[in-house]
Amino acid sequence: MTGPAPHRLDLTGVRDKAGLLRSCAEQLGFPDEFGHNWDALDDCLRDLSWWGEPGADGWTVEVTGWGELRRRAPELTRTLGEIFADAGTYWRERGVPLTVTLG
């Protein structure tokens, strides 16, 4: 991979939507004005300007704790997965990949 290091999101121990959104905000470095709701998460993933310029391979997010969260709160992973997929499509259409790996 060429460019900036992957961004990491550890969802281990997350139990609810508030904890999930807080983890995203803190670990992915969202701006202070992040609204801590699904729409705000979607907006932040479509404006990654605070991450600086993407590398030649775009941006990468490595998620850990996904399986644990999926077992505990499948509705959260379903919604988060949809938001990640939509953001990936948004960036791909602009020629800048956003790759999210779930582990």
UniProtKB/TrEMBL annotation:
Gene3D superfamilies hit by this protein: Barstar-like
Stored InterPro entries: Barstar, Barstar-like_sf
SUPFAM superfamilies for this protein: Barstar-related (SSF52038)
Family: Belongs to the barstar family.
Pfam short name (any one): Barstar
Protein name per UniProt: Barstar, RNAse (Barnase) inhibitor
Start and end residues of each Barstar (barnase inhibitor) domain: 7-102
Classification via CDD domains: Barstar_evA4336-like (cd05141)
